[in-house]
Design a protein that fits this description.
Helix content: 40-55%
Number of helices: 4
Oligomer: single chain
Number of strands: 4
CATH topology of the domain at 93-176: Gyrase A, domain 2
Largest sheet: 4 strands, antiparallel
Radius of gyration: 37 Å
Length: 179
């Protein structure tokens, strides 16, 4: 008769199997490390090549083409700037700005001119109000709106509107957040 009883008091590990598994995992990690290092080196080389291509393209684009005189090139750049300005003006959200101005303008204030600066987002607002308290209320409403920032009263003056009626003419500068 054959008895298979384990009389040991603690569990024994098969150290050979554990060492083989640890060695296999270490080899796999080293292979992945080598692959990642080669991939990073390739990416850095590609990045350097792309930067060199970009600088060569920029130098070619910044100089005038062969066969074009300096005067024609300057005229062409002027036309490009003009058309880009038109595109900027067309892309301005006028309806959103007018809607926000309508919501912020109180009763008794009439706007007469609205001049946006496309480059810095500033808007110059000119108008008339019944009295200075209306202008103050208008400034408070503009400040309370989330669309307008850096609100500044540029000028105000009493003007006669007709024979007996007086009003206050004002000019305000503010920045409109893009919508």
């Amino acid at each position: 008769m054959y008895f298979s009883i384990n009389l040991a008091t603690r569990t024994y590990l098969d150290r050979r199997l554990v060492n083989r598994i640890a060695t296999l995992i270490l080899i796999m990690l080293l292979v992945m490390l080598a692959w990642n290092i080669s991939r990073a080196a390739w990416s850095l080389g590609e990045l350097r090549r792309l930067r060199a291509d970009i600088t060569s393209y920029e130098s070619r684009l910044s100089s005038r083409p062969h066969g074009v005189s300096e005067k024609e090139y300057a005229l062409l750049l002027g036309n490009i700037g003009f058309y880009n300005e038109i595109i900027d003006r067309k892309s301005f959200n006028w309806l959103g700005l007018l809607d926000q101005l309508e919501l912020a303008t109180p009763e008794g204030v009439a706007l007469s001119a609205l001049t946006p600066e496309m480059k810095n987002g500033a808007v110059k607002i000119e108008g008339r109000a019944k009295n200075f308290a209306q202008i103050k209320l208008y400034l408070d409403k503009l400040e309370d709106s989330k669309v307008f920032t850096s609100i500044l009263l540029l000028s105000h003056a009493d003007v006669a509107v007709g024979e007996r009626t007086k009003a206050v003419q004002f000019s305000i500068s503010c920045k409109a957040a893009p919508q």
